[in-house]
Write a structure and sequence with these properties.
With 258 residues, this protein is of the alpha/beta class. 26% of the residues lie in helices and 24% in strands. 46% of the residues are buried.
C-alpha cells in the first residue's frame, strides 16, 4: 500500500529580496516523511489558488505549520491593533475552512504554533495578541540571537491533564518543550479542550472536543529534531497512524479527540 499523503501548509516567502515563493521548513517535511512515515506534499497557503474542497479528497491528513503572520483578529470578532503584528488573509481563508471541514469529516489534522492558533480560531476560540505583555506570563518568543539549535532549544515544561490525550500518548504528565510564539489562547471557546499548560498558565496543547478523528495541536515546535526528541516523535508517529487509518477508510479510534 502506498504511503498516506499529508498536505503541509506552505507559507509565502521571498528568496533573496525579490523572488516570491511558497515554502515550508525542511523540519516539517522530514518529520512527516521520516517520523510519520507519510508522503509530504506542500500546499500553497493561498485560497485564491486552492480551497478546502480541492484538497479534502486528495490528502489523508494536513499539517498546519507555523508562520510569522498571525490569524487576523476579525476571524474571532476583534479589531486589529499594532500588537497583533502581521497578517496573511489568504492563508486564513484557506486554513480555517479546511480545519472545520476536517473536524467534521474526522480527517486527521495536526497544528503547530500558528496552526495551533488556527485550530483554536476555526473552532470558535480567541487569542491574545502578545503573551509577554500579560501580567505573570513569560516571554514565549524565539530568542533573537543564537544558532538554530539555541533558538529551538528546550525552554520550559508543559504539564498535561491527568489521564488526558497527551499524557496517554506521551506516557508522561510533564515534558520539556521549546518556545517560539508570541500569541496564545485567550478563550478556547466551546469546542477546544486545553490539555496542557506552560508553568505560567499559557495553553500549550489542545484537541477538539468530541471530534471523530485526530485533531491535536501544540503551541511549541515538535518538528524540530522530531526523529530524536522523545516528545516530538510520538506526536508525529500518532499523526501518521491516524493518516494510515484514514487512508484505509476509518478514523483512528485510539486517539479520537474526546
Amino acid at each position: 500500500m502506498s504511503r498516506p499523503i499529508i498536505g503541509i501548509i506552505a507559507n509565502p516567502t521571498l528568496v533573496g529580496d525579490d523572488y516570491p515563493t511558497f515554502a515550508s521548513g525542511d523540519m516539517n517535511v522530514n518529520a512527516i516523511g521520516h517520523v510519520a512515515e507519510c508522503m509530504p506534499v506542500l500546499i500553497p497557503a493561498d485560497a485564491r489558488l486552492v480551497n478546502a474542497e480541492d484538497l479534502l479528497d486528495r490528502f489523508d491528513g494536513f499539517l498546519f505549520t507555523g508562520g510569522r503572520p498571525n490569524v487576523h483578529p476579525e476571524e474571532y470578532g476583534e479589531q486589529a491593533t499594532e500588537a497583533h503584528g502581521e497578517f496573511d488573509r489568504c492563508r486564513d481563508q484557506l486554513t480555517l475552512p479546511l480545519i472545520r471541514a476536517c473536524v467534521t469529516r474526522g480527517q486527521p489534522i495536526f497544528g503547530i504554533c500558528r496552526g495551533f492558533q488556527e485550530v483554536t480560531v476555526a473552532m470558535g476560540g480567541t487569542l491574545y495578541p502578545e503573551i509577554r505583555d500579560l501580567e505573570g506570563r513569560m516571554n514565549h518568543r524565539m530568542p533573537p540571537d543564537g544558532t538554530l539549535d539555541e533558538k529551538f532549544a528546550l525552554r520550559h515544561k508543559v504539564k498535561f491533564e491527568t489521564g488526558g490525550v497527551y499524557e496517554r500518548l506521551l506516557g508522561d504528565g510533564v515534558v520539556m518543550t521549546n518556545s517560539l510564539h508570541g500569541q496564545g489562547i485567550k478563550d478556547a471557546g466551546p469546542n477546544v479542550v486545553i490539555d496542557g499548560y506552560a508553568p505560567d498558565g499559557t495553553p500549550e496543547a489542545i484537541y477538539v472536543r468530541d471530534a471523530a478523528g485526530f485533531t491535536l495541536a501544540v503551541q511549541w515546535h515538535p518538528e524540530y529534531n522530531a526523529q530524536n526528541d522523545p516528545v516530538s516523535r510520538p506526536l508525529f508517529t500518532a499523526f501518521g497512524d491516524a493518516a494510515r487509518a484514514w487512508q484505509q477508510g476509518h478514523q483512528n479510534s485510539e486517539l479520537k479527540s474526546a
